[in-house]
Specification:
Layout: E1 27-35, E2 46-55, E3 58-67, H1 76-82, H2 86-89, H3 95-108, E4 113-116, H4 119-132, E5 142-144, H5 145-152, H6 161-167, H7 178-198, H8 204-216
Parallel strand pairs: 1-4, 4-5
Antiparallel strand pairs: 1-2, 2-3
Helix pairs in contact: 5-7, 5-8, 6-7
């Protein structure tokens, strides 16, 4: 008989949210991960998850942050980049405990949509870790600030979060730490929403369409 991986405790999905819902009526979870390296589709592991929530273009006070024990050494180049050492995470909980706490944070905040900067990297890291732990998850819609920037400023092709935050005049927090980058992304996201509304884009459907247009053109 075919064995199907068990489903992790559900995170709030958005399948029933009308596409014409104004984004001021949505709550977004803006998240980021730090990892042991950049091959998250293969052997690299998550070492930190950070998140903050946004509603009505305001960054809310309640945040989420946890180190993750990757059960392996953290390379010196990653320690130099993030400040996270093997000792930092050796007493941290394993991934499966952290992701359950993270999903609970999302659920308690009634955060309908996820947001990341270069979100495909972080989503891949999460999906690989979940699969490694022999679970599966139905993920909600996840928006990428890079797609919004690509729509507003098509000539921009960089990935650097700090550069974009500076260019759009939003706050910059401690870099290459999951919560710091999540906060920076959240403030950038709020600024991008103001720019999008100036162009008449103000609904969930608009945000999804912008994401799809950007992906079709890359």
């Amino acid at each position: 008989m075919f064995w199907r991986k068990p489903l992790l405790p559900a995170v709030p999905l958005n399948k029933e949210i009308p596409l014409n819902t104004h984004f001021s009526n949505l709550t977004f979870t803006v998240f980021d991960t730090e990892t042991t390296g950049f091959a998250v589709g293969a052997s690299d592991r998550i070492i930190e998850i950070g998140a903050v929530q946004v509603k009505d273009r305001m960054v809310l006070d309640k945040t989420f942050q946890s180190y993750v024990n990757p059960e392996r050494e953290i390379p010196p180049n990653i320690t130099a980049l993030t400040g996270i050492t093997t000792k930092t995470v050796e007493q941290a909980p394993p991934f499966i405990e952290v992701i359950k706490d993270f999903f609970q944070y999302v659920k308690e905040g009634e955060a309908n949509i996820w947001v990341g900067h270069y979100a495909s990297f972080d989503l891949l890291a999460l999906k690989k870790e979940i699969a490694r732990n022999q679970y599966r998850v139905d993920f909600p819609i996840c928006l990428d600030t890079l797609d919004m920037i690509g729509y507003l400023s098509p000539a921009k092709h960089m990935l650097d979060l700090e550069i974009y935050a500076s260019q759009f005049g939003s706050r910059i927090y401690e870099r290459h730490q999951a919560l710091g980058d999540a906060l920076t992304t959240a403030h950038l996201f709020c600024e991008l929403l103001f720019h999008l509304e100036d162009r008449g884009k103000n609904t969930l459907g608009d945000l999804i369409e912008i994401s799809n247009i950007t992906k079709r053109n890359t």
